[in-house]
Structures are given as structure tokens and as C-alpha cells.
TrEMBL record:
GO molecular function, a single term: isomerase activity
SUPFAM superfamilies named in the record: DinB/YfiT-like putative metalloenzymes
UniProt KW keywords: Isomerase, Pyruvate
NCBIfam families the UniProt entry points to: maleylpyruvate isomerase family mycothiol-dependent enzyme
Family annotation (Pfam families): MDMPI_N
Name of the protein described by the UniProt record: Maleylpyruvate isomerase family mycothiol-dependent enzyme
Residue ranges annotated for the Mycothiol-dependent maleylpyruvate isomerase metal-binding domain, each copy included: 18-142
Organism, as annotated: Kitasatospora acidiphila
InterPro entries cross-referenced by the UniProt entry: DinB/YfiT-like (IPR034660), Maleyloyr_isom (IPR017517), MDMPI_metal-binding (IPR024344)
Length: 197
């Protein structure tokens, strides 16, 4: 099967990365103190584990662009994922996302090749993968914490193109993306966990 996806421009990818990190960050900021251990739709991971993993992934971006491999530093690999309420989780996310964005916006950064766990790939393609992951995990986080689960249409369209899905003449693009990613949303609880927990 041939890949008919058009190559991404660096400007488009950087703009959508900004949008994806901002969207995820708004949900991180909205996590209630008693929601960090709540399960998400992503393999049953807790909210804390999901946020911690994506924060760590953004924090690795500058090193990957500088030529490092995908391995975590030993001290970070041994650190537990945050599953307890933490006052710094939102700030940690902002710091990691800003560092990643600065590295990605450096001259010619997206023209480089990075070494990931899946092998070498163009940095622009790696950033496109980050956008797709952030888009889907924004829904995971929002759904698990009773926040707005609606995703930006532009990000949904981008993620569908990245998946190689054929365009639909009609239907809900977000529902299609979630289905392709194995998400089967149950109705949101009408109860606020922070109030009732």
C-alpha cells in the first residue's frame, strides 16, 4: 500500500503542535485533586500516569533533536509516575511543553532526523506523531476527569490524515478517530468526582 499523505510543512506542524499542547494543557490544569488515580480509556492507565508519561515525552524532545537516543536517563526511568495529587503537575507539563516547543522552533530543527524507539525518522514526522498522540490523549484525559471531551476539528482532521484513514463524506470525524484508536466512549458521569468523592 502506498502512502498518499502529503508531506507536512514545518510551519503547519509547529502551529498544530502549539494547538495540541495547549488543548492538553487546559485539561491538565482542570484535573481535580482527587482525580489523579482515576482510570482513563488508555489501557486503564491512571490520570496521573497518563499526564506523567506525556510530560516526560515532551521533556525528551530537546535531547532527541540534539541527537540523543530514546532511552530515559536512569534517574527518570526509575521515578514513579505521578498518581497522587500534585501541585506541580500542571506546571511540570507547561515547562516540558515550552521546552519542547522552543527546541522544535529552532532553525532547521524539523529538518533533522531523530532516533526514536521505532528507529530513525524525520523530526517533522516525529512531531506529527506527537500531535496525533496529544489529540487522542486529550480526549482520554477529558473523559476521565469529566471535562469537555470535544477536540479541535483541525487536530482531529490532522490525526485522521496521519492514521491514513480514507475521508468520509459524512459522519462525525471525532467519533471515527476515537474508534480507530480503540476508544469506545461511555456516557460521562453526571457527578463531579471532587464533590462526591
Amino acid at each position: 500500500m502506498t502512502d498518499d499523505r502529503a508531506p507536512h510543512s514545518a510551519a503547519e506542524v509547529l502551529r498544530l503542535y502549539d494547538e495540541a499542547t495547549a488543548s492538553f494543557g487546559r485539561r491538565v490544569a482542570g484535573v481535580a485533586r482527587n482525580q489523579w488515580a482515576a482510570p482513563t480509556a488508555y489501557h486503564g492507565w491512571s490520570v496521573g500516569r497518563l499526564v506523567g508519561a506525556l510530560t516526560a515525552e515532551q521533556a525528551r524532545v530537546p535531547a532527541l533533536l540534539a541527537g540523543a537516543g530514546p532511552e530515559l536517563p536512569a534517574e527518570r526511568a526509575a521515578a514513579p509516575e505521578p498518581t497522587e495529587p500534585t501541585a506541580t503537575a500542571a506546571a511540570d507539563w507547561v515547562r516540558a511543553a515550552e521546552a519542547a516547543r522552543t527546541a522544535l522552533a529552532a532553525p532547521h530543527a524539523l529538518a533533522r532526523t531523530v532516533r526514536t524507539a521505532d528507529g530513525e525518522r524525520p523530526a517533522v514526522a516525529y512531531c506529527a506523531r506527537l500531535i496525533t498522540e496529544l489529540t487522542v490523549h486529550t480526549w482520554d484525559l477529558a473523559h476521565a476527569t469529566c471535562q469537555d471531551p470535544h477536540l479541535a476539528p483541525e487536530l482531529v482532521e490532522f490525526a485522521l490524515r496521519e492514521s491514513g484513514a480514507l475521508p468520509l463524506a459524512a459522519g462525525d470525524p471525532q467519533a471515527r478517530l476515537l474508534g480507530l484508536c480503540g476508544r469506545h466512549p461511555a456516557p460521562l458521569s453526571a457527578l463531579d468526582p471532587e464533590v462526591t468523592g
